[in-house]
Amino acid sequence: MSKSLQAIRGMNDILPEQTPLWRYFEGTVARLLDNYGYKQIRMPIVEFTELFKRSIGEVTDIVEKEMYTFEDRNGDSLTLRPEGTAACVRAVLEHGLTGAGQPQKLWYIGPMFRHERPQKGRYRQFHQIGLEVFNIDGPDIDAELIVLTWRLWGLLGIRDAVKLELNSLGTSESRGRYKVALVEYLSAHLDKLDEDSQRRLKTNPLRVLDTKNADTQAVLINAPKMADYLDDESRIHFEGLKARLEAAGIPFVINTKLVRGLDYYSKTVFEWVTDKLGAQGTVCAGGRYDGLVEQMGGKPTTGVGFAMGIERLILLLETLEQVPEEIARQVDVYLCAFGEAAELAALALSEKVRDQLPNLRLQVNAGAGSFKSQFKKADKSGALYALILGEDELAQQVIGFKPLRGQGEQQNIAFDALAAHLATCVVQG
């Protein structure tokens, strides 16, 4: 027998019972970003491979090990996007969105792709919401990005489960001086470093700082500190950011080992982390990348942004039981009709109700069926109320109204009073 068809490992279906929570989360974020003045941009999921080599860095784990790269029929090397910032910068440059120093506050949503070992909260196709801001160079915009995520955590009911970690990487010049000192120190303790850190020491030494290896972490205790090598500009910027967060009442901790995994970061870097999801603790992360636009062929342009992992935040909402009850319920009212004449009347009546109550989730039974089978469908739908329309009700121009989830007797409601009654029971209640 032929092998049964199934999804690629690490690329998952999002099933109908899961999508209401995704839509709730995405809608909450979209409304928040509208309120803060961010505009949505949509980029292709496939880009030229060179884009990511130039932006992320050829010696990063993403480019070396994780990208889905292939040749198309023209012989061009293409890559499924592993992250969104590079693609957004490419779009901004291509369409001249930051010309004449014009500020841009953008956001995007969509799937990203990395060939990693799949585990809970970490998949090969994963989804992100990202924000990118261009041509605003002060710490005020860094603070705004963090403040709006803090507001989002409040809207979602997860503030108590996340912690903000901050660091500053300085400019490329100060970071270069720090790299020299770090390499010199680690080289003197080479035999105590794990194999992966020894490799990174030659290619991307800052990545040694976020190792999970206990022996290497012990060596890092006495390693040079990034803060001691910061230039004055970066130090003033970082102090300005901290002052604004303190003014907004947002708690944070300084993590001197926080470097992020991409080469383009400078000055501010931050992560929102949780201890509720096991090893996959980062739910939102980002920072400043003032040299990236110029690195990709544009004029000097400041930039800062972040990305949040939708799968991990959905998992966090479920773990903390912060899924609103109305999200789990996809139907408010289920209309049962018995007989062809009642079915015709139910169709017309339901559309009139929808005209008057456009937010009402009203499902009309399809496929006929007995009284018992239709009521079973109504109960399974999760609806709060059932509407009953048969020959007797049709003759009297009324419809039966029966609560399914609580107390209350069945009653008859006149056709022309149905919308007002439902507004009181469902839409407003």
What attributes does this structure have?
429 residues, 39% helix, five-stranded mixed beta sheet, alpha+beta, BirA Bifunctional Protein, domain 2, Rossmann fold, 16 helices
Number of strands: 16
Taken as a percent bin, the fraction of beta residues is 15-25%
Tell me about the biggest sheet? 8 strands, mixed
CATH topology of the largest domain: BirA Bifunctional Protein, domain 2
Q: Give the N-terminus to C-terminus distance in angstroms.
A: 55 Å
Write structural notes for this entry.
- With 429 residues, the protein is of the alpha+beta class.
- The protein has two domains: 18-170 and 230-320, Bira Bifunctional Protein, Domain 2 (BirA Bifunctional Protein, domain 2, 2-Layer Sandwich); 329-428, 3-Layer(aba) Sandwich (Rossmann fold), CATH 3.40.50.800.
- Helix content is 39%, strand content 20%.
- It has 16 helices and 16 strands.
- The protein has helices spanning 19-35, 49-56, 61-66, 85-94, 139-156, 172-187, 195-203, 214-220, 232-247, 292-295, 310-319, 325-328, 340-356, 371-380, 391-396, 418-427, and strands at residues 39-40, 46-48, 68-71, 77-80, 104-113, 125-134, 163-168, 253-254, 266-273, 282-288, 303-309, 333-337, 362-364, 385-389, 398-403, 411-414.
- A hairpin with a 5-residue loop joins strand 3 and strand 4 (77-80).
